[in-house]
Description:
GO terms for molecular function: DNA binding; protein dimerization activity; zinc ion binding. Residues 9-64 form the BED-type domain. Residues 106-147, 718-770 are annotated as: Disordered. It is found in: Nucleus. The protein is α/β, with parallel strands linked by helices. The protein has 5 domains: 13-92, no CATH class; 146-191; 204-314 and 595-640, Ribonuclease H-like superfamily/Ribonuclease H (Nucleotidyltransferase, domain 5), CATH 3.30.420; 315-449 and 453-494, no CATH class; 496-582, no CATH class. Helices cover 51% and strands 8% of the residues. The chain has 32 helices and 12 strands. It has a 5-stranded mixed sheet. Strand 7, helix 10 and strand 8 form a beta-alpha-beta unit. Helix 12 packs across helix 18 (424-433), helix 19 packs antiparallel against helix 20 and helix 27 packs antiparallel against helix 28 (580-590). The longest helix is centred in the N-terminal third of the chain and has 27 residues, at 62-88. The radius of gyration is 31 Å and the shape is globular.
Amino acid sequence: MSSSDSKNSRKDFVWKYVIEVSGEQYLRCKFCNQRCTGGVNRLKHHLAGTHHGMKPCNKVSEDARLECKEALANFKGQKMKRNELLQEIGMGPTSMHESALSKTIRTLGSGSGSGSGSGEPIPRGPMDKFTTSQPRQSTLNSKWKQEERKEVCRKIGRFMYSKGLPFNTVNDPYWFPMIDVVANFGPGFKPPSMHELRTWILKEEVNDLSIIMEDHKKAWKQYGCSIMSDGWTDGKSRCFINFLVNSPTGTWFMKSIDVSDTIKNGELMFKYLDEVVEEIGEENVVQVITDNASNYVNAGMRLMEKRSRLWWTPCAAHCIDLMLEDIGKLNVHATTLSRARQVVKFIYGHTWVLSLMRTFTKNHELIRPAITRFATAFLTLQSLYKQKQALIAMFSSEKWCSSTWAKKVEGVKTRSTVLFDPNFWPHVAFCIKTTVPLVSVLREVDSEERPAMGYIYELMDSAKENIAFNCRGMERKYGPIWRKIDARWTPQLHRPLHAAGYYLNSQLRYGDKFSNVDEVRKGLFECMDRMLDYQERLKADIQLDLYDQAMGEFGSRIAIDSRTLRSPTSWWMRFGGSTPELQKFAIRVLSLTCSASGCERNWSTFESIHTKKRNRLEHQRLNALVYVRYNTRLRERSLQRKQNVDPILVEEIDSDDEWIAEKEDPLPLIFVGFKIMNYSMLMPLELCHPTPKRRKHHRIILFLHIPTKGNIMKYQVSTSGGKGKEKELNLTPIDEDEDLDEMGIHDSGHFPTIDTLDEDDDDLGEEDLS
């Protein structure tokens, strides 16, 4: 047994029954001096007398025997329960085999009824050539079964339509297990009551999730973890704070706290964060991520003073979004965005104009829903520019000129902007080429595909370089953009952890463009001083020379060739064995996320639970319900990540209403409700904000359903004194990542020349960039 394994398992009670002999790699029984060649688990079998892998101890005391026997029984029960849960959602080691086997058995046993069409090939033997698996004739029983199935399906459909459930509910991994167990129960099944759902069933689900949580705890101990926290306000102005834990195993929701009746100052935030750190274990926490609000900054500084080993870092996605907001306030950007919004609002606010636009753009949309508001603005601007020729052709066409809209003030103004404004399109191009590199960095740090800690330093530098390149190296153009970026990056986002991640990333460290400047090495050494005790620090510092000079395993041919093939964490796990202290430190840094946006993506989970009055759940039960639902969805996302699908991300993308609906001050903005559906359906139950009173002017009420690509979005137009008319907009939401792929800036961080470089924007003056 290795020393590391021995050290990690010393908390097990069985060590009090062990004799350790110096120089031996085995355990010895305290009672009979029998040598155990396995681990502590085998020794428990020896003491419990189970005859499992080792001869029973004949001198063990009765108390020790019972203690070991009970521990083994508990371990076996937990393992079986965990495997059953994993197999239920398709994660178990034998789930695929059992699924195929059960389908085969079901096909053989069901005859011509339910067995046909399963799609699974039936294993065939030597006697099968003398028989046929096809039924000779259709029996009355099979016909009756088909009719019975139709009746069952109709009742299921009626329930879903009645409750407004999205059609893709049936794609949920828990749908088929539920239907199977109900069918297997047979006639007379009594469904759970509301009381059962809110009591023992909910409690059992919490217990099952606690078993899954053990896998996450192991990862927290091995790789370290990040605590993510963010606040939000629901439609009733109630404030909540979410706390999640992120590691390479995935994101885990810890709890949500209602802070509506408290002042959310730095002292309160520090108290909550410190409690979560204590709950997880300070030795497992590497960093705490929050947004950059002053109360969180204060809490983060106080937390670092009390907890000497961890870091507080601001959310990178939030900081980059603030960069985009600052850039959007420059005169040229603000003016261009305002004009572009007017164009898009006019087109999307009138169905005839929208239909004509789609004819010319070949059904390509202008609206670009994105992760944040300002990313939405600039990506929509990019989409508008891509359809430049189509929009010019539309407003120049005979069909437009002969329409009533061509004579109205709105139409004349929009046409003038698109066709005759000499600055509009050059300025649109300038706004795109000075912001798209930042949007791609936002996408990278917000993604859960890979930890971004080892890349953000290089991504920010590359984004600035490419903004300068897109501006043809003219300092008067890119200088104001750089200053806006630096104003956020230097005091807020640039942290020692980012520098350490950059240095320890083998993909970048051995590259020609690696910047081995003082601030990078200073950040690395600050992290080592804070995260390691003196002896580990001393050893890691010596081992750093081997990494710098690519000596030992670091310099082997396979290590060199693997630098760009493996993730940084995987590379260190494979080739850092000869430098254990440095390896552990590197893995804990490179496994970190940079963004707390995981807290934000599932707000609809809380919105739908907190706003349902009819359940009247007390606070403790409400927390349990949120805990189950949030972690269930996080686990589903982890499963689907293998297919590069992020359902929570898609569901929580917000569409920016300011690009579609008019703002009417001082009235509040019209609510835009979202619901993932495979087909568009108006769901008034999803409203979170009350509809303002009617005015004498037109008001557009949007019910946006942003589903998977190819489905439709529907909105309703209401006018005063008249009846509301429902109109369909065949919007096809565009995934922001697609266009980044087309431009070649998806993963590499390198940006090619984009097609806006040919635009003449030399007329930009100092006042435009102020």
